[in-house]
């Protein structure tokens, strides 16, 4: 009699990292995150602790905002990194990066980043996703400007983030 061997092969989880400053997270970022989850199993949204541009929100605040948005989700992990992205990717063993590409104005910067990172860590691949049209011109900087001028930020960010922006810019302005 032929002995049959059954193997249960567990498919490996497809993971990717979405790095950024998230100062603060916007609906545009959320759109990119949801799109990426159509073809990966789990996304590590990773905040750079020390972005090139001095952030308005502290590292703790940026982390708190992202964690509140993704509370209870097991397909999105919020993490952070210091130093080079390539070192972080290597440490995590994740070689797929997700980035948003909005208008042509993003292209130069993103292209330079991909090629420089690839020189340092050849096995990484970057997938660029484009958000829905209404978020094409949305940026964290624009959102901060709107908040500073007491505009309707709730159209562009999750409710928790809108409250944090108001605390920072409106309530904070009395104290300055
Ligand atoms: O949201 P941002 O500010 O466009 O994100 C840029 C970020 C954080 C992904 C990028 O600046 C980065 O990877 N910084 C870490 C330092 C690093 O690796 N620099 C080399 C990039 S060429």
Question: Overview of this structure, please?
Answer:
This protein has six helices and five strands. With 176 residues, it is an alpha/beta fold. It has a domain of 122 residues: Rossmann fold (3-Layer(aba) Sandwich), CATH 3.40.50. It has a three-stranded parallel sheet with strand order 1-2-3. Helix 1 links the parallel strand 1 and strand 2. The longest helix has 17 residues. The relative contact order is 0.18. The model has no long low-confidence stretch (mean pLDDT 92). It binds 4'-phosphopantetheine (PNS). 4'-phosphopantetheine binds next to strand 1 and helix 4.
**N-to-C span:** 85 Å
Classify the oligomer.
single chain
Structural class: alpha/beta
Number of helices: 6
Classify the helix fraction into a percent range: 40-55%
Low-confidence stretches: none
CATH architecture of the domain at 15-136: 3-Layer(aba) Sandwich
Name given to the CATH homologous superfamily of the domain at 15-136: HUPs
Assigned CATH class of the domain at 15-136: Alpha Beta
Task: Order the strands across the largest sheet as they lie in space.
Answer: 1-2-3
Q: Beta fraction of the residues?
A: 15-25%
Described by strand count, sense and barrel closure, the largest sheet is: 3 strands, parallel
CATH topology category name of the domain at 15-136: Rossmann fold
Order of helices and strands: EHEHEHEHEHH
């Amino acid at each position: 009699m032929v002995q049959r061997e059954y193997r249960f092969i567990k498919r490996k989880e497809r993971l990717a990292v979405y790095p950024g400053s998230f100062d603060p997270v916007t609906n545009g970022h959320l759109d990119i995150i949801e799109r990426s989850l159509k073809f990966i199993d789990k996304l590590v949204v990773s905040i750079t602790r020390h972005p090139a541009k001095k952030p308005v929100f502290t590292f703790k605040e940026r982390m708190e905002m992202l964690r509140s948005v993704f509370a209870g989700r097991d397909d999105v992990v919020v993490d952070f990194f210091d130093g080079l992205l390539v070192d972080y990717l290597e440490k995590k063993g994740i070689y797929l990066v997700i980035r948003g590409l909005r208008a042509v104005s993003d292209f130069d910067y993103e292209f330079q980043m991909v090629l420089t990172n690839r020189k340092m860590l050849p096995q990484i691949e970057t997938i660029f996703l484009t958000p829905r049209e209404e978020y094409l011109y949305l940026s964290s900087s624009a959102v901060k400007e709107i908040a500073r001028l007491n505009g309707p930020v709730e159209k562009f960010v999750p409710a928790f983030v809108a409250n944090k922006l108001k605390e920072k810019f409106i309530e904070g302005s009395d104290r300055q």
